[in-house]
Design brief:
The complex is a heterodimer of chains A (about 625) and B (about 210). By secondary structure, chain A is an all-alpha fold. Helices cover about 60% and strands about 0% of the residues of chain A. In chain A, strand 1 and strand 2 form a beta hairpin. Chain A is globular. Chain A starts with 16 loop residues before the first helix and ends in a 34-residue tail after the last helix. In chain B, about 70% of the residues lie in helices and about 0% in strands. Chain B is built from five helices and no strands. In chain B, helix 1 runs antiparallel to helix 4, helix 1 runs parallel beside helix 5 and helix 3 packs antiparallel against helix 4. Classes of the chains: A mainly alpha (about 625), B mainly alpha (about 210). At the A-B interface, helix 5, helix 6 and helix 7 of A face helix 1 and helix 4 of B.
Amino acid sequence: MATTTLAPRTAVYGRSRVYEWLTTTDHKKIGVLYITTAFGFFILGGIMALLIRTQLAVPGLDFVDAATYNQLFTMHGTTMIFFFVMPMTTGLANYIVPLQIGAADMAFPRINALSYWMVPLSGLLLYSGYAFGGAANAGWTGYAPLSGVSGGRLFEGVGIDLWIAGLVLVGTSSILGAINFIATIFKMRAPGLTLMRMPLFVWNTLVTSVLLLFAVPVLTAGFVMLFIDRHYGGGFFDPALGGNPVLWQHVFWFFGHPEVYILILPAFGIVTEILPVFSRKPLFGYKAFVFATASIGALGFSVWAHHMFTTGAVFLPFFSFFTFLIAVPTGIKFFNWLGTMWGGQLRFSTPLLFALGFISLFLIGGLDGAFLAVVPFDFHVQDTYWVVSHLHYVLVAGSVFGIFAALYYWFPKITGRMLHEGLGKVHWLGMFVGTNLAFFPQHLLGLDGMPRRIVHYADNPGWGPLNFLSTVGAFTIAASILPFLWNVVISLRKAPDAGDDPWDGNTLEWATTSPPPAYNFDSLPPVRSERPLFDLKHGAVAAHAVAIPAAAGETHEETRADAPEEMLGEPIEGHEAGQIAAEAQPGVSEAAPDATPHDARPKADDEPTPRRRKSDK
Amino acid sequence: MIASAEVVTVPNAQVDPHGEAGHAETGINTALLGMLLFIGSELMFFAGLFAAYFNSRAAAPQWPPEGVDFINAAPLPLIVTGILVTSSFTMQWAVWRIRKGDRAGMNRAIVVTLVLGIVFLFLQVYDYNELVTEHGFGINSGIYGTLFYTLTGFHGAHVFGGVVGMSVVLLRGLSGQFSARHHVAVEAVSAYWHFVDVVWIGLFTTIYLLK
C-alpha cells in the first residue's frame, strides 16, 4: 500500500546534539538552557554570599580585604538578581507558558533564542571585570557618585564599565523576552482559552513582561547617562557640572521598584499553580487574584521613591501612602492562597512544602516592607541590615522558594522523571531552617543600627553572635543545595517514571507527554474553564453535568443523581461551570443553552469524581 | 492516562510548529504587535532621558544656562523639523500605496522618505559641527550640553535605525516581496518611523520652544 505515514516523532534529519542545542529555537530547549544557565549563576552568586558571610562571621576578621569585599557584594547582588532570578523565571515561563496556553512555540522563536544567548554573553562581560583589574564595586544599585565621576576622578577602573555593558545587554534580552511573552500570550492561546481562563502563572508572566517592557528601558537610559558621565565628560550626576547625583537614584529606582515585582510575580504565579493541585481544589477567588496581580503591576510604578525617603528630594506622604496601598493586593493574594488550601486535601509533596515555605516566609518579608513604608521607621533603619533582611526575606524566601517549588513541580514534565521525595524534603528543611537562621538575626542587627555593605563591624554587644548565626544560616542554605543537585543527578539517570500527569494537574501542560514532543501537542482538550485538564478528567460529572442529555439512558440518570450531591459536598466556588452544575438541581432537564456536541458526549464509565480519587497518590 | 476519545483534535493549521500562524488569525498581526511593543519600550527609554532633562532643569538656578543663546529654533532646527514631519507623511503614503497593491508607488514613496531621513541626518551632523567649532559647545559643556547631545544624539541614532529599516524594506520592495495582503514589514517600519518623528516633535518643543 502506498500510504505515507507521518511520524513526527522520528528525527527528520540528523544533527549532532551540540549543534542542535546551540541553534535551537524550540521554546522548551531554550527554557532548559535558561534554567541551567541561571542555576550556574546561582551557584556563583551563592559562593560569593558564602565569602561575604565568612568575612562577617566574627568581628574584626580579615578573610578578604575591603576592595575584594566591595566587589563581592556588588557582584553577588547583580548576579542573583539579573543572572539568576530573572533568567530562571524567564526560563520557566519559556518552557511552561506556551504549554499552558496550548501553543506550539513562542510567537518569535528566533528572537527567543537571541534573548537567551545574550544572557551568557552579558554574564561574561560582567565577570570579565575580574580579569581587567577588578569587577564592579559600587553595589548592585550603583549609586552615583560611587559609580560615576566625582571631582574629575573616575571611580575604580573598567569594572563598572563592564558592569554597565553587561547589564545593558541583559536588559535588552529582558525587553525582547517581554515582547515575545506578551505577543505569545495575546496571539497564541488555544481556542476557548480566554484571558479569564488563563492559568495564573501565565497571568503573572504577562504582568511581569509588561513591567519589564516599561521599566528596563529606563534603566538602560540611566546606564547610558552614567556611561556618558564616565567617558564623555557628561554632567548628569556631577554637581560640579550642574548635574544631580540623586537623579541616578530616581532613574534607578523607577526601574528598581518594578524590578522587585518582576522578581516576585513569577513566584506568585508558581505558588498559585501549585496550591490548587496539591489541595485538590480550584483556586479560591480567581478573578480577585487576576485583578490583584494587575494592580500590583500598576502600583509598582508609583512607589519608586520609597527607596529614597532619606534623600529629602521626594514627597514623603505620596510615596508612603502608595507603598502601603500595595499591601492591599498582596494581602488579597494571601487570603486567596489560604482560601484555596482551606478544607482541601493537602498532599505534602515537595512542591507544596516549598509553596508553604514561600507563603509563611514571604509574609515576614512583606511585613518588613510595610515597616519600611513608615517614614520615621525608614529614617531609622535606612542602609542597615534591616533592609538586607527585608530584601532577602522577599527574594530568597520569596523568589527562590518559588523557583524551587517550580523546579520540583515541573521537573517531571521537563524530564519525564520524578525527583526523589525524601531528598526533596531534606533540601526543603535545610532551606527553611537556613533562610530563617541567616536572615532573621539581621532584623535585630538592623534595628540595632548595623550598617550594610561594610567589611568590618564594631564588636558591639550582641552583634558578634547574631552575625555568627547568620553565617551558620548561609552555610546551611548552601549545604541544602547539595541534596538537590544529587537528586537531579540520580533522577536523570533513572528510567522515565513520571507519566504525563504525575500530580493530577489542572492545566494544559499536563495534557501532553513528558517531555513534550517538539510540536507540543498532538491534540488539545477543549478549554471551558481555567482548569481544562481537570474538566477533561472529571468534567462529565463535575463540570458539565447539566449538559448531559436527560434521555441518554439509565447510567446517565445515575450520574445525574450523583452529580449534584458531589457538587454540594464540594467547594467548587470560582469554577464557572461547576456553579452552573450546582445551580441545576436534580430533575432540571433543560439542556444548557451553551451545550455543545462535545459537552453532550455520553459518559464513558464510572470515572472517579475529584473527591473520590484518594487512591491516586 | 487521558482517554483519547475525549480529546478534540485540533486542525493541523493550529499547531503550526513554526509558530508563524498561532491559533488566532484574527486581530493585529503578531509581528506588528511585536513592533508596537518594542516602540513602547523605546518610548520608556526616551521618557528616562526626558525625565533627566526636566529633573536637571528644575534644579538649575537658570535655564537655559548663560552663554547658550546660539541654541535657537530658527533656522536649522525648524527646517529639519519640517523635513522629518514631511517624511512621516511620505512614509504613510507608502503604506497606503501597498495596501492598494501598488508596488511601484510604494517604492517611490519609500525612496522619498529615505532621502528625507538621510538629509535630516546630514543636517544634524552639520548642526553638531557648527556648534562644536563655532561655539565650542560640546557634550562636556556642563549639564545643558550633556542633555542636548544625549537627547538629540539618541534621537539621531533612532533616525539612523529607521533609515536602515527603510533600506531593507526598499530592497524587498524592489524585488517585489510585498503585496496588498502581505506587507507587515512596511507597516512595522512605518510605525517605527512615526514614533521617531513624534519623539523629535517632543524634543524640538522641549529644547527649542520651552525656554
